[in-house]
Amino acid sequence: MSGEHAFRSRFGASPDTRIVVPGRVNLMGDHVDYCGLPVLPAAIQRRVELHVRARDDRTVRIASSAAPPREFGIAEPLPPFAPGDWGNYAKAAISELARDTGEPRGFDALFDSDLPQSAGLSSSSAIVVATALAFLHVNHTRIDRLDLASRLARAERYVGTHGGGMDQAVLLLAKKRHALRIDFDPLRVCPREVPDAWTFVVAHSLVDASKSNTARDAYNSRPREAEAARAAVARSLGAPDASFRDLADRFTVDELLDAARRADTVHRPRFTHVVTEADRVERAARALELDEPETFGRLMSESHESLRTQCKVSHPRLDRLVSLCLRSGAHGARLTGAGFGGCVLALTTPAQRDKLIARLTEEFYGPLGVTAHEMNDRLFIALPSQGALIVE
Ligand code: NG1
Fold first, then answer.
1. N or C: at which end does the chain have fewer Cβ atoms within 10 angstroms?
2. How far is CA 102 from the centre of its chain?
3. Do residues 329 and 355 lie in contact, with contact meaning Cβ atoms separated by under 8 Å?
4. pLDDT the model gives residue 1
């Protein structure tokens, strides 16, 4: 059943708007956005769609083909559902935006999605962004997308995670066929063209990485530990107030790693990850500009190694996928997003692509009993796609 049809049978009327929000892969720069350091993600063709119809009251009703329906009245403050409830992503957006909307109107909405959930592909931020755009649309309010991305990054903390601003920014501001270099404080974006021959494959580890549930505490400890390490290193350099950005601007990576060796911190591995990953983002952005996929791939694999050994957010299944990708001729591979499960992203060539897919299917998914029908959500090519769209 089409989303529009499902909307009509659920709510007894036609939707008047469709909002399309992509998922994303992160090409380089994980667990650094919350330190205020740049990242290099791309939106992908897998997306969530929200069919929306304005209401005349303050009620929000959201149905979904994949989750139980949720209903709430727009109020201030807006109390959350139970921890881990998907409806909190919708409430996160609305509690942020309703604050400066005089007499907010609610809406009926139906979610439809082909974006795997809890996979490190930003399905949660896609719900936040889609709900925000629906709310703004039915209330005839316009907010500049850069401002909206910053506000929604803060807003998503409503669900209990202390993330950075990468996801909301790329979902709102991405450009087709481009990756998006994102800088923070203040938020700035710069699209970088991805050459057609660069082929990105997404492979799911079959381990859920639900940041609002099982992985929440593990995720939240990373920004805390990185910040503790920053404070210790900055103190040891006589610049206690220097942010990660200041440190990266004033010192070389080697100087910072030396300082971390001397500083009084048990979180040196987190610091090491953050400063080396930030450096990889710069080098990867250059490799993209120069069309050097081998260099880019090498940096991806180094990044995975750092996420595995320093940041400690990998999982044996992700590691296995990465080494299978490398053995199948990929230029490089890394976990993408928060980790703890979710997906691996590999960079390969059009010529090597089928070999890579066949090998992963045979050696990874086959033995785990994944059916041909399920494979569609487990292993696919990621096409750099445009950001969120509102279709009247
Ligand atoms: P995912 O993979 O969507 O859970 C999370 C954070 C990002 C970033 C990455 C790791 C949110 C909404 N997303 O992404 O800000 O920190 O982990 O690089 O918190």
1. C
2. 32
3. yes
4. 67
The H-assigned helical ranges of the chain are: 3-11, 87-97, 123-138, 145-155, 166-173, 216-236, 244-250, 253-262, 268-289, 293-309, 316-327, 353-360, 372-378
| CB of 161 sitting under 6 A from ligand 1 | yes
Q: How far is 392 from 382, CA to CA, in rounded Å? A: 27
Task: Write the pLDDT tens digit of every residue in 50-107.
Answer: 999 999 999 999 999 888 999 999 999 999 999 989 999 999 999 999 998 889 999 9
Report the atom number in ligand 1 closest to the C-alpha of 215: 4
Nearest ligand 1 atom, CA 34: 16
CA distances from 96 to 74, 91, 127, 190, 341 (A): 11, 8, 14, 26, 30
- Please give the number of the atom of ligand 1 that sits closest to the Cα of 24: 3
CA-based nearest residue to 218, from 312, 347, 356, 116: 312
Three-class SS state of 209: coil
Ligand 1 pocket test: pick from 27, 125, 334 the residue with the most ligand atoms within 8 Å of its Cβ: 125
Best mutation site among 122, 127, 158, 167 for ligand 1, i.e. most ligand atoms within 8 A of its Cβ? 167
pTM over 0.70: yes
**Catalytic (active-site) positions:** 167
| Lookup: tokens for 196 | 């057609």
